[in-house]
Amino acid sequence: MVVYRLRVATGPYFLAGTLDSISVTLVGTNTESHKQLLDHIGRDFTPGAVHKYKVNSSCELGELLLVRLHKERYSFFPKDSWYCSYITVTDPSGVVTCFPCYQWIEGYCTVELRPGTGKIICHDSLPLLLDHRKKELRDRQECYRWKIYAPGFPRIVDVNSFEEMESDRRFALTKTTPFADQGSGSGNRYLPGFPSKIDIPSLLHMDPNIRYSFTKTASLLSNAIPVSLGMKLRGLLDRKGSWKKLDDIRKIFWCHKTPILEYVTEHWKEDHFFGYQYLNGVNPVMIHRLSSLPSNFPITDPMVAPSLGPSTCLQAELEKGSIFLADYWILGDAPVGHLNGRPQYVAAPLCLLWLNPQGALLPLAIQLLLPHTRYTLQVNTIARATLLNPEGLVDKVTSIGRPGLLYLMSTGLAHLTYTMFCLPDNLKARGVQCIPNYYYRDDGMKIWEAIDNFVNEIVNCYYPSDIFVQRDSELQAWVGEIFTQAFLGRKSSGFPSCLSTTEELVKFLTAIIFNCSAQHAAVNSGQHDFGAWMPNAPSSMRNPPPQTKGTTTLKTYLDTIPEVNITCNNLLLFWLVSQEPKDQRPLGTYPDEHFTEEAPRQSIAAFQNRLAQISQDIQNRNKTLALPYTYLDPPLIENSVSI
């Protein structure tokens, strides 16, 4: 008789423990143990606890390959979910093998865990392990199915697949109970205190391993409900009509001020701040360098002479490379809707900017073209249920509404390229490498390089040569699925449909990590800062833009920007998407130890050290700035898109 010693760790999360019966089977290269119940006197598997057990076997099992966890009914108790962090097994010779889990296990089922040593498919030769890979992939494909949301839109996760699996006795992915009347009609409905409809059924059924934790959910609700109720009680959400004066807008965000918001409120009308936002605002990737003027922008020297001054001219500045353009062509054919029963307007402007000798980016000319009258898996599901759903927040605050936003996203995807997706290539293509005070570029490149070095070390650990990349069928299928489902198989995009070299793999992974962490932080985190002062970023226009310079008055401006209730709805939107809920995991933080080998552990530590140095550099620089740029400070960047 030989004895294997187990340590079973339960996650430290709310309701992570279980009352269900847990048994284990150890599988080795020689044989497997008998199924054995893990049971002590008293409560087992409590949140945050690590319990020790012994498993007896009539003979040595050989090298350990799998741990099978069996979760079954205990007495008369109902099903109880369990978050298992990891299991370590010490064999009779003293060798310790760690089996990471880090997942919610729901219902009555058997889960197979592999050791934490990273392996690609080329490293597996035993039929047992190859079958395990196939089964795991098949189960994931059955769980995460694709669905068409709108024409030209990236494919989305079909949350109905979670609901179907819930009803299957083999699975029980969520404990959420549907509303009693869910089947009686549309689930798109109002909730008390919230100003727009929410597609409730799409939020009910979600794999517990991708949905928000209890802490994050509670934090999100505590961010949303008090703000919304506060505006409701003050009558702002129901007040239609124009603002009487600009200072009145300050009243709606009196308790949600930030230093940046205060700065925006004071400087929003200044040319230097207008140009600054193209570099370090919420959309720092719009401008590109011009060598000649576009044909649809008939600007002459006399028009810009007052801004350029007598010592230069437009052509000279074009040749010098100091003229830039922000082109909002994508708005040209966007459909426009109604707000408060009134038709709205949208413009597709061209904005010419000049990098002056002092290093300031200033607007030279703005042309308004009037076309016509008239936002990871959980967070995307939340967005579709609260923002993109009919009569959701987007319909409540923007000129273009849901149809217009769907148009923008599908049109934007049709023009998205791999060059635009990769920061170094994007900066080079736009010709913005030399603009001073471009903190998004400077901080972004430091983070890109840190991610690139980290990914390069990890990839080279498991893919020693290009042939390993080419022969990894799981990797190639993953890349192909992204190309087909996310970028709709569009070859002109330049996105890879397969990978041939380790260099290509490193770049692809770096781009994905950067865009899902740093890039999202850069364009999302500042929305409240830059948008809460509504005049700086109005979401709609009630009148067409002026066609003659100098004809605008304060009254015509107030009658054009959003009404009181629309402004409040928009502020609520900016507040929600800018407030990262609790339970955060900053970039480079990996509390779930899926890697057990020393090499990747060292790479993670080096990555974290580099990010810490970048953070220190950013904080030192920001001490010297009137308006600090904080959105790419690593501790403030989430590992993934989560809001």
Automatic annotation (TrEMBL):
Return the SMART domains for the record: LH2 (SM00308)
Name the residues annotated as site: Essential for stabilizing binding to COTL1: 104
**Which residues are in the PLAT domain?**
2-119
Keywords, in A-Z order: Calcium, Cytoplasm, Dioxygenase, Iron, Lipid metabolism, Metal-binding, Oxidoreductase
Q: Which organism is it from?
A: Vombatus ursinus (Common wombat)
Look up the record and name the cofactor or cofactors this protein needs: Fe cation
Biological processes per GO annotation:
lipid oxidation
Report the residue ranges that make up the Lipoxygenase domain in this protein. Answer: 119-643
Q: Where does Ca(2+) 2 bind?
A: 39
The region annotated as signal peptide is: none
* Family recorded in the similarity comment: Belongs to the lipoxygenase family.
**Protein name, per record:** Arachidonate epidermal lipoxygenase 3
What pathway, per the record?
Lipid metabolism
Which Pfam families does this entry report, sorted A to Z? Lipoxygenase, PLAT
**Cofactor-binding details, from the entry:** Binds 1 Fe cation per subunit.
Which SUPFAM superfamilies is this protein grouped with?
A: Lipase/lipooxygenase domain (PLAT/LH2 domain), Lipoxigenase
Amino acids binding Ca(2+) 1 = 17, 80
One cellular component (GO) term of this entry: cytoplasm
Q: Where in the cell is it found?
A: Cytoplasm
Q: Which residues bind Fe cation?
A: 520, 643
What GO annotations for molecular function exist for this entry?
iron ion binding; oxidoreductase activity, acting on single donors with incorporation of molecular oxygen, incorporation of two atoms of oxygen
Question: Do you know which InterPro entries this protein is assigned to?
Answer: LipOase (IPR000907), LipOase_C (IPR013819), LipOase_C_sf (IPR036226), LipOase_mml (IPR001885), PLAT/LH2_dom (IPR001024), PLAT/LH2_dom_sf (IPR036392), PLAT_LOX_verte (IPR042062)
